[in-house]
Amino acid sequence: LPSLSLPSSMHLIQMDSVQRWMEDLKLMTDCECMCILQSKPISIEKDEQNELILSSQYSTCDNLQLLLKRAWIISTELTRIAQKLEKNRWQRVHSMTVRVNCHVRSMINEYNTFTRNSSEEMHQFEKLLLDKCSEFTAFTERCIQTEDEQILKSMKSSINETLTNVAQYFGQLIELVLTHEAQNLLRQIELSDSMYITESAISSLFSLTQEGSHLCRIIAKEGGVVALFKICRQDCFRCLYPQTLRTLASICCVEEGMYQLEKVDGILCLADILTDNSHSEATHAEAAAVIAQITSPHLTFTQHLSSFLENMEEIVTALVKLCQEASSGEVFLLASAALANITFFDTMACEILLQLNAMKILLAACSDKHIVDTPYSRDQVVTILANMSVLDQCASEIIQGNGVQLLMEMLFERSSSGNSAEVAACERVQQKSAVTLARLSRDPEVADAAVKLSCIPRLIKLCRSPTERNNSDSVLVACLAALRRLAVMSPEGLEDSDFQQLVKPRLVDSFLLCTNMEESFV
After folding, report:
1. What does 19-57 look like in DSSP terms, one character per residue?
2. Architecture of domain 57-178
3. Ranges in the chain annotated CATH 1.20.120.330
4. What is the mean pLDDT of residues 278-289?
5. Of 251, 334, 355, 456, which has the fewest beta carbons less than 10 angstroms from its beta carbon?
């Protein structure tokens, strides 16, 4: 079965299994009804709304969520049919094919109930899909009526081909439907003068972006970035800026979104918003979120960065100001994340930060537990410190701001919840704090401060105890590097066994020794 070009609602999969079953139950029940009714509406009045179709339909957003849930179920069922077909489970294949047939009919009826202006092309695909589903059901029905292995074997390739056709038509229909809905929402945003309609359309568009990168690509290709930046350039829609920018940040996770952003001078618009003090903190924070998204070091497409460099100084200045004046941990996180990403792709950013006294501002923020209140925020701060530490002038700033003490505290970073994302953030904090210490300890004054704060015993413990570093190899390598740098500056701080095992050998040999310690405890 070929992979379907569908937006799989990943949040559905992450849901608790009982909750997932409860969500699906009403759709499954509706499906059984459709088996009997053959998708015929109860009402004989064509214009009368069929009240028996799932009653949760209140808005375009709700309708699309229902459609996506139904599409997710159909996609899952088609995959399962392919698996059962492989094992020649003909009875199961037929029953599941009947169920898919009913789901497809239900989905098309539901969609046509709330959509009055679907295209001729869409109706053609609906007919093709329904015909192919009926053909598929008839095929599998013939299979359960014979026990002749040779006949079944000869029919199997035809069934596989029909299943593939069903999957392709289904994928193309969903693509058309989602494109059509994205076009409708963007048309509302572009043409409406009503604040309420525009806000509602942007909200629905944001909900669509949360369904995965495939939907973000559709929205970007249909001009979503252009339409949203048009909103951000109109003063009459200022109250919608935060919501609009949040939607833009989601769309710009895909290359098509980034290409559109470059096309409409989006970075210049973001710079204008960030440097305009008349905007609310919420607007500035969401603009920072867009900057964080488009400067992510994980992105493989970078064609937008040339225009970013032209506006970098004023953007960095505005982000530092936002960090300094942040009224909440969330605002600080967004601003510091944008700064952290910027420091990865241009050393000039680090020089600008140094001129702006950013080191002092960030270190001061870390002492306020209401602002830097999670490992995620500390991860952003220590990323900036690590990238700035390549500059020689950075050492004195660290000493003045009591930064060595902060780095020492970060070596003790532990997750309080056990959540996997938080544990990973804690590992990054430990690793980057060790990297920063290693880089800064080329300055004797920093090295001396680190020794006095007992950094050496802590680094040794992180190297020797896998549980202290959550079995992280990257933390181990960073700690070994920092320990070796400090050992050069203060050899008397180490016992002979530590020196012989952790400092004297090649780094790779010490690494293997420490990872073998982990195995010996198991």
Report:
1. HHHHHHHHHHHHHHHHHHHTT--S-S-TTS--TTS-TT-
2. Up-down Bundle (1.20)
3. 57-178
4. 96
5. 355
